[in-house]
Each structure stands twice: as C-alpha cells, then as structure tokens.
TrEMBL record:
Purpose: Catalyzes the reduction of dTDP-6-deoxy-L-lyxo-4-hexulose to yield dTDP-L-rhamnose.
Cofactor comment: Binds 1 Mg(2+) ion per monomer.
Reactions that this protein is recorded to catalyse: dTDP-beta-L-rhamnose + NADP(+) = dTDP-4-dehydro-beta-L-rhamnose + NADPH + H(+)
Lineage: superkingdom: Bacteria
Lineage: Bacteria, Pseudomonadati, Pseudomonadota, Betaproteobacteria, Burkholderiales
GO biological process: dTDP-rhamnose biosynthetic process
Family label: Belongs to the dTDP-4-dehydrorhamnose reductase family.
Any one GO MF annotation of this record: dTDP-4-dehydrorhamnose reductase activity
UniProt entry tagged with the keyword NADP: yes
Keywords recorded for this protein, A-Z: NADP, Oxidoreductase
Keyword NADP in annotation: yes
Record-given protein name: dTDP-4-dehydrorhamnose reductase
Pathway(s) where this gene product acts: Carbohydrate biosynthesis; dTDP-L-rhamnose biosynthesis
Length: 306
C-alpha cells in the first residue's frame, strides 16, 4: 500500500529569516523545494515562469522580498520589482496551475495614525516606498483571482540575518548606553512564529479542495500578541541576554534619532508609522490560531540564539 500523494511546495527566499523557518515548518505538508536567490531570482521574470512551470507546485510560499526600508527610498524601482512585480507573476502562475499562493506583507502599508490595532479592512496608506511596494504586491495578487493567503506581519526578528535583535546584541556588547526610539509602537514578531502559524493554517486548508482555498483567500494579520516600543523591545532583549555588562537603554523620540541629513521630520530616509499594531482576530476566527505574546516568543528565540 502506498501513502497519500505528497503535494509539491515551492518555497522562495529560503535563506531569509522567515524562509529559513518555513523550510522546516512546512516539511509535514508536502515535498518542499526550497530555493534561495541562486535557485530562483525574483528579479528575473522569465526565470520565475520557467521554474514554476517546471515544478508545477500545488502550493507556492513566497518568503522572498526587498526588505531594506531606507534603501527603498532611493531605489524604489528595485523594491517594486521584488515586492510587487514578482508576486504578481507568481500569482498569475498559481492561477494557471490552480495552486495556492502564500505571500507576506507588512504593517508598513498603514500610516500609523489609528489609535488602536489595525484590522484587515482598514484603509492602507503607506508612508514610504517600501510600504507602497508591498501594498502594490497585495493588490496585484488579488487582481489575478488566484487562491491566496497574504499574511501581514510586523517587526520581524530572528536568530539569523539582519534584524533588530541581532543589532541590539552587537551594539550592547560595544557600548555603555544606547538611545532607542520610544514613540513607535508595534509587536516584535519572531520569524518562527510566522512560519509556525503559516504551517498551521495551511495544514487546515490543504486537506480541502480549491473551492475552500478560494473561500479562505484574502489578507490576514499575523503578528505576535501584545505591543511595545522599539525602546521596550531593546530593554527586553538585554533583560534576556547573557551580556556581563548590560547597556543603559535611553528612550528618545523619533525626531531625535541620529539619522540622515535633509529629513527634518523623519531623521531616517523612510518615514515609519507611529502605530504598527495589528489585530489577529481574523486569523483566530478563520483558523483558530492565536499568536504568542511577544515577550514569550523573544525568550524562546534567545534561548535558541544563546
């Protein structure tokens, strides 16, 4: 007797923070073909079509993206190419194959002026080129009519790659005092949390047919529970660290952050939303999934890291 047919899953961005975790969390759902930029360069439209058509996956999980928020201000075309044009092509190919597409977006599609957490139905109004490129990707995917899940997450960090956690640990080992922005609020989200909840949602969907995939299609917010400032996040990192001498964390406003000349209102090239909180209620209502508190996830991540 043979077992059930294993669905082929194409994962892009396999070496990124989220992609690395997805390559492990998706294992039980099918045969995972995990490709990094060397295997699939999303800046190459012809290669996207060729690879997807050769593999003919039942599920495409796109964890690749242009994530250099400040650099996008001077290279908006590159951000748009990877965050909008490439996802549009993946969605077109998914539609042609009858495949399900999973894609990741960001809290930066919002302007941060809302008092409470953002719902999926709130009007997007990105402040920077990165956010505009991610919003364009969301819209392009939906326009194809393919079955899709778009997960908006926030403040992603992990034990790998360039992220706030690793930067703070490095700077904390070098300096006695660190000034960290305290007037931007959001939910630091461990990359493994994103991957685990993605796999949990997919485990429910993949046992159903395409009709159910279409009924569940749309945008879902997926971030850790709770919220803090970048300053609060930094303090929690040092509280959980094994540094012999921990730096003093000084809270400063965004306007006081030592950034780049020529941006008096926002001292870094890209403006950031002051409120990045996302409501996960739709994720719970649809899939019964609840994200862990950001503090709990941070402790687990740092156990792995240290």
């Amino acid at each position: 007797m043979t077992g059930p047919e294993r669905k082929l899953i194409l994962l892009t961005g396999a070496n990124g923070q989220v992609g690395f975790e997805l390559a492990r969390c998706l294992q039980g759902l099918g045969r995972v073909v995990a490709l990094d930029r060397g295997g699939l360069d999303l800046a190459d439209s012809d290669q996207i079509r060729r690879v997807v058509r050769e593999l003919a996956p039942a599920l495409i999980v796109n964890a690749a993206a242009y994530t250099a928020v400040d650099s996008a201000e001077s290279d908006a075309a590159a951000a748009m190419r990877l965050n909008a044009h490439a996802p549009a092509l993946l969605a077109q190919e998914a539609k042609r194959l009858g495949a399900l597409l999973v894609h990741y977006s960001t809290d930066y599609v919002f302007d941060g002026t809302k008092d409470g957490p953002y719902d999926e139905g709130d009007v997007a109004n990105p402040l920077n080129a990165y956010g505009k490129s991610k919003l364009a990707g969301e819209q392009a995917i939906a326009a194809t009519g393919c079955a899709h899940l778009i997960f908006r997450t926030s403040w992603v960090y992990g034990a790998r790659g360039k992220n706030f956690l690793r930067t703070m640990l490095r700077l904390g080992a070098e300096r006695d005092e660190l000034s960290v922005v305290a007037d931007q609020i959001g939910a630091p989200t461990w990359s493994r949390t994103v991957a685990t909840l993605t796999a949990d949602a997919l485990s429910q969907l993949l046992i159903h047919d395409q009709d159910e995939w279409m009924r569940s299609s749309g945008i879902y917010h997926l971030s850790a529970s709770g919220a803090t400032s970048w300053c609060g996040f930094a303090q929690a990192i040092f509280d959980n660290s094994t540094l012999e001498k921990k730096p003093v964390v000084k809270a400063i406003p965004t306007a006081a952050y030592p950034g780049y000349p020529g941006y008096p209102e926002y001292p870094t090239p890209a403006a950031r939303p002051r409120n990045s909180r996302l409501s996960n209620q739709k994720l719970f209502t649809t899939f019964g999934l609840t994200a862990p508190d950001w503090r709990e996830a941070l402790r687990l991540c740092m156990t792995d890291l240290l």
